[in-house]
Structures are given as C-alpha cells and as structure tokens.
Amino acid sequence: MSNQLIYQGKAKDIYSTEDENVIKSVYKDQATMLNGARKETIEGKGVLNNQISSLIFEKLNAAGVATHFIEQISETEQLNKKVDIIPLEVVLRNVTAGSFSKRFGVEEGRVFETPIVEFYYKNDDLDDPFINDEHVKFLEIANDEEIAYLKEETRRINELLKDWFAKIGLKLIDFKLEFGFDKDGKIILADEFSPDNCRLWDADGNHMDKDVFRRDLGSLTDVYQVVLEKLKALD
Ligand code: TMP
After folding, report:
1. Rounded to 5 degrees, what angle do the CA atoms 24, 162, 68 make?
2. Which residues pair with 179 in a beta bridge?
3. Is the model's pLDDT at 116 over the cut of 80?
4. Bridge partners, 77 (sequence order)
5. pLDDT tens, 173-204?
6. What CA–CA distance (Å, rounded) separates 33 from 94?
7. Considering the entire predicted model, what is its pTM?
8. Interhelix angle for 45-62 vs 220-232, to 10°?
9. Cα(100) to centroid(ligand 1), Å
10. Tens digits of per-residue pLDDT, 86-104?
11. Mind listing the domains of the chain with CATH numbers?
C-alpha cells in the first residue's frame, strides 16, 4: 500500500510509495535536542531543511557520491531510495566543537590536522552512545570492509562539502551522516544534510546551524534561510 506512514522521526516522517524501492520523506517543523528531551515547533524549518538537503544531495549525486536522493517533490517532501539504515551516526570533525570539546575539555575552534571520524550507535533507549570499531563488529552492525568504506566515504564527502561551504564563506566544523544498504546491498548515503546535523561558522564566528537552537542564540529559521540563499548562489 502506498502513502502509509512507515517511520516517525524527530525531524522527518517516512511514507511508503507505489514503488516498493522508493520512500517519501516529509520534513517537519520540529526541533529537538538531548535525544528529544527538549522539543519545539519551529515554523518553516521543514521547508528550509528539505530545500537545503535536496540541493546538497543533488550536488553530491552529480559529484558521483552514491546517495538515496531521487528528487524533491514539494516544499516539504522528497523521494528517496529505500534503504536498510545502518544504525550508526557517522560524525566527522574538522574543528573541535560540541561534544568533543566537552568530553575532552578542549576549547572550541582548534583545527584537526587530519579530520576525525567517530561512530555513535543509533539507539534512542541507550541515548546513542559513542562506539568504536570493535564494538561495531561485535554488535554485527558492520564488518571491517564496511567500516573502512564508511570512514573513507565520509572523508571524501567532507572534502566536497568543505569546498562548497568555503566558496560561500562558511566553515564546515563538523557533521553527522547516516548510511544504508540499498536493494542491491550497496552502501549509500541516506538521511539528510542540513544545518540540523552539521556545524557551520561564518567568517565572524557566528553559528549558522542548530547551535542557534541548542544555545538560544536567536532565530533558527533566519539563519537557515541565509544558509539556503548562499547555497543557491553556488554554481
Ligand atoms: P556533537 O558535537 O554533539 O557530537 O555533534 C557533532 C555533529 O554531529 C554536529 O554537527 C551535530 C551532529 N549530530 C547530529 O546530527 N545528531 C546527533 O544526534 C548528534 C549527537 C550530533
């Protein structure tokens, strides 16, 4: 059956379509933090993130990255290839910030000579804990080859994104990706890429991302709108 709600996420809902290999993602106006402990409706966020993520995934597809993105079909909706999500949040850090700074007592803003890749286990009941390669293998989430691919692909995507954001005057500090297995068993990039799951600092060090919500720094949608307009101006 098509148009059945298959999954209700914090920022998106997922529906079935007439094609069993295609799903519809509907971006919502909800912002959460601390694994949903703080939750707010922010009008216009869904439209902005759908546009931003669609634009970035189109560029990633064009650059030869295998992704789930098919097309944007409305202000809040896009079609994606159906995948079995790998339950890992793959975080890449170019610059110290957020939980890294907190965990290790390092000030924000120090550039890593080589970007750092981290895994978190996607499990709400466990609060998405930090997890290492050995844990990933023990839990049979991914094998050595798959772990290596996830890291390499994330670093490759970082190089593309860092370059695009630099061209519009934004520094890509860190971000989170999710991957999944497509119908042929191939690992492809899934989920979204928006200021909800990355950190972007402008030349003056202003936060142009969800830290505006996390740290109560002003209007989230005003900032996301600026990011969208800048991205649209990118060739
Ligand atoms: P962190 O510093 O809180 O670990 O976050 C690193 C990056 O990953 C940051 O850009 C936000 C993103 N992220 C998510 O998108 N979802 C999450 O659940 C977490 C923990 C981080």
Report:
1. 20
2. 189
3. yes
4. 26
5. 999 999 999 999 999 999 999 999 999 999 99
6. 22
7. 0.97
8. 30
9. 10
10. 999 999 999 999 999 999 9
11. 5-81 (3.30.200.20), 84-219 (3.30.470.20)
> Do 148 and 156 touch, CB atoms closer than 8 A?
no
Q: What is the pLDDT of residue 34?
A: 87
Contacts of 20 (CB under 8 A, 6+ apart): 82
Q: For position 37, what pLDDT does the model report?
A: 87
Please say if the pLDDT value at position 36 is more than 90. Answer: no
The Cβ of residue 68 has, within 10 Å, a number of other Cβ atoms equal to 25
**Three-state SS for 107?**
coil
Residue 151 contacts residue 66 (beta carbons within 8 Å)? no
Mean per-residue pLDDT for 133-145?
98
**Pocket around ligand 1: residues whose beta carbon is below 6 Å from it?**
89, 91, 97-100, 128, 174-176, 197-199
Mutate to test the pocket of ligand 1, among 126, 158, 176, 200 (most ligand atoms within 8 A of CB): 176
d(CA 28, CA 10): 8
Give the model's confidence band at 172: pLDDT under 50 very low, under 70 low, under 90 confident, else very high.
Answer: very high
Contacts of 150 by beta carbon, 8 Å cutoff, 6+ apart: 86, 88, 90, 119, 142, 179, 187
Q: Tokens for 232?
A: 């649209």
